[in-house]
Design a protein that fits this description.
The chain is mainly alpha-helical. It has helices at about 5-15, 20-30, 35-70, 70-95, 100-110, 120-150, 155-180, 185-210, 215-245, 250-270. Helix 4 (about 70-95) crosses helix 9 and helix 6 (about 120-150) packs parallel to helix 8 (about 185-210). The two termini are about 25 Å apart.
Length: about 270
Amino acid sequence: MDTHAVLTAFGLTALAGLSTGIGSLIAIYSKQFSHRFLALSLGFSAGVMLYVSFIEIFQKARISLVEVHGDALGYLYTTLAFFGGIALAALIDKLVPISDTPDELNTITELGTHPTKPKTHHLYRMGMFSAIAIGIHNFPEGLATFMAAIADPFLGISIAVAIAIHNIPEGIAVAIPIYYATKSRVQAFTWSFLSGLSEPVGAAIGFFLLRNIFSESLFGIIFAGVAGIMVYISLDELIPAAEEFGEHHIVLYGLISGMMLMAGSLLLFL
């Protein structure tokens, strides 16, 4: 692999993952945040990821596998790898579930006016478990961003932005309970920041495990799997979270806007 491309891919993955820190800063320094804007942003992120997964990433994977294995087998392997990515994301989700973030946020952000505050140890435990769960979930996201950036830096930027938007509410979910439990902005920021660090770590692990056996066929399989992971993240996390934060049509407008922007940007580079 080209060294410059690898460093660029790692940089984009790190920026995407560490945007959880942005979420923590919003949580600990803002009295309120706009649920409608967050819903629009999450819908937009889902639109980008869904469009690019089906239109760009899946097709690039198919082309790579068809060149090596022929039309029929190449398409079959692409399809199997795509659903394999979905299965991997679903397995991680099953083994390490993330609690319903929007409900937690809606409850915790009202603590200042709520007459009965939860015990601090419960809040701290909630924040720590959220950080661990989100960190594990971020591993495949890091690999997805890294692989996309390796194949096409412009595509990598688009996915990194979408993942970054997705990570902001995750950072909020980690920071708020820890901040309310400890009254420490440093602890809240640190744990939120660390939960996103697993994305570049996931990219690094994937790179060092695969770099010596990398081939056109392996690239196609991984890339198709990445498309599946991104589709699962969009359908299982982004859209449901967006729906919880805002009205259905706000989410839909964000979703369509994300698709349109991604389509327009891809057309510019034809």
